[in-house]
Structures are given as C-alpha cells and as structure tokens.
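The passage that follows is intended for readers who have already worked through the single-chain material. We present the inputs for a multi-component assembly, then the predicted structure in tokenized form, and finally a short commentary. You are encouraged to pause after the input and sketch how you expect the pieces to fit together before reading on.
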Amino acid sequence: MSPLTDSGPLRADSARVRAQMLAAARARIGEGDLDLPMNAIAKAAGVGVGTAYRHFPTRQALLEALAVQSLAALVADAVAGAADPDPAVGFTALLRNGLRLLRDDPTLAAVLSSTEPPCLATTTDLNAQLGGAVQTILERARAEGVIRPDVTADDIRRLICGVQHAVAAGQGDDAADRYLDILLAGLRP
Amino acid sequence: MSPLTDSGPLRADSARVRAQMLAAARARIGEGDLDLPMNAIAKAAGVGVGTAYRHFPTRQALLEALAVQSLAALVADAVAGAADPDPAVGFTALLRNGLRLLRDDPTLAAVLSSTEPPCLATTTDLNAQLGGAVQTILERARAEGVIRPDVTADDIRRLICGVQHAVAAGQGDDAADRYLDILLAGLRP
DNA sequence: ACCTGAACACCGTTCAAGT
DNA sequence: ACCTGAACACCGTTCAAGT
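Having made your guess, compare it with the prediction:
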C-alpha cells in the first residue's frame, strides 16, 4: 500500500516517518521559513531523500498534508455556520473564522488560493465539503436578503484569501478586523 | 558611476546591457515564467553572470526595475485622480486603474505588495509620490463623505493588492469588475 | 518490498583572472 | 575600470545498489 493512496492505515514505521517529516516541516514554517527544501526536511526527519519523495512526491503534496488540519477545521466551522439559526450570523462567522485560520496557518492560505488541482484526495474531499457548506450558507443568506445575489462559494474562497493577502501585506496592526468589516459591508446587497 | 545609484546617464554599453537584461526578463515573464533565474537571464542577454549582478545585485532589484514603468503609470493615474473635479470619480478611477495595471503587469503586484523596503531609490520615490497622491484623493473623498473616514493610503494599497490576488485565484472570468465593485461598496461610509 | 544516498542537473552568488 | 565565467554551495529529483 503506497502512502499516496492515503486510504487505509499505514505501517507503523511508515506512519512514523510521515509524522517526523511533517514535524520537521512545521518546525521550519514555525521559524518563518515558508519554502520547504525536501533535502533539508528529509535530513531533519532522519530519512533518505528517496523515502521523503515516496511519502510526498512533490512539495505541493507536503504542503497539502500540512494544511489538512486547518482545512478540516474550516470545514467544521462552515458546517456549523450552515446550521446556524440566523443565516447572517452563520455567514459572518464563516468569514471571521476563515480569516483567523488563514492567519494562523500559512499553509492553508497556500492551499486555498492555489489555482492548481489538489495532489491529495483528502484535499479534494475537504474542498468539496467546504464548497457544499459555503453554498448552503450563501443560499440561506440570499433567501434572507443579507448578501448580494450573485456571490458564489468560489467568490467567497477567493475574496477571503484576498483579504488575508491584504492583511499580510503590512505589519502586525489592527487591519484584519477592519478589512473583514470592509469585505462584509461590500458583500451586502 | 555605478548603475546602482540610478542617477545620471549610464555609459552607452552599460545602458545596452541593462536594456538587454530587462528585455530578456520580460520575455520570460511574457511566457508566464515569473521567477527570474539570474544565470539564464545573463545568458539570454549575452553577458557574464558577474555583469548581470553588477546591474541588478538581487532579483528584487531586477523586479523593481521591471515594475518602474507600471508604477510610474499608476502614479500618473493617482495624480490625475487627485485633480479630478469630483472626488468620488477620482477615487473610483484610482482603484479601477490600479487594478488594471496590476492585472497587466505581475511585477507591479510583486513590488506593491512587498513588505520589504525597496532596493531602488526610484521605487522609493515613486512609492512616496503615489502615497501622497492617494492621500490627497482620500482626504477629498472623506470631505465629501463618500468613503469611510478611517481608511488610509496604505490600506488602499493593501486592499487593491488583495483584490488582485482574489482575481488571480481563478480562471479568466468576469471577477475583476465584480470584486472591484464589492471593494468600492465596502469602502463607502 | 522498501530504504539509502550518490549522482546529475540546475540556480544563486562570488571572485580570481583576464582585457 | 570593467567584464568574464569557473567555481562553490545548495536544492530538486532520480535510480542503482543495498537490506
């Protein structure tokens, strides 16, 4: 069973290698270093480069594996938002939570704003779940008349990534809340 | 006179090398290749790598040199917008023109959304001119009551780069106009 | 079967040697 | 003075050889 199928349990040592690589990559990212040299990560994880490539054939695959946690959290938030009694509250909560997750995890921003199709089936699944939940939120908000009628789930994904980009294009100031507010105001009908 | 001072005329051959490098870099970018390998550009321009580095000590310097045209055009647009009889018109024209220039020139996006200070004095100058003109536009629009009072020139820079990012995070669709509209609506008081 | 790491190609950057 | 390109360090990626 290849790790690439990402279905079924891995052998114990394979899972260990995978975890060590992810930990090494996260350590690098934690130090602000956003690019992930395969050679360096393999060495830090104590495995040969070939083994590293067997687990993550491309840097994008590694990036997606790192982002799975945050992406799953975002899906959970979106599902919760879709079930909120007040559609407007669910909608604003989605944007607020999304922006927070994007700020806390740079790999999520990389995965969410990528134009390429995902490497991992898990990412594809989570993306689909996210799209479904966001669409539900939008339909309910639209029925309530609290958002522009022409906004799609894909628009929301792109716009929230754009706001994150704007927030990141400055020093650690109070921009996040203000920009989120501007986006919310702009999305009202 | 070193080319790095970017003041005063260059010797004829130096100017030729510079132009050849910029042309080679633009050719690469034109093919969608956004990173600029110094070795490859030096070879394409027919000069040694050392000479390439004397002209552009870092890739950021090369990027800024490529962006100067677009940045100057944006400054001109902003100055024109600041002189518009109708502050609201000047303001919307600024955002519209800015987004168009960002879409047409990927190097402008790289330079405008960079958090690092510029390499070239020219970039610093143009940035300052741009900031001044945008601030004038904002003050006039604020006096007219057509924008939120707390929006700064830096916010505008970051937000327009964010919208560009959102536009770029999709296929060639009609997103640019819609996202610009959302931003404009969000910026109203 | 799986893992290793030498090996090849490539890019950034410097600097001794040329003119 | 200025230019050249060999040279060194580094990273991506593959694959023959080991276990």
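Commentary: The mean pLDDT of chain B is 92. The radius of gyration of chain B is 18 Å. How closely did your sketch match?
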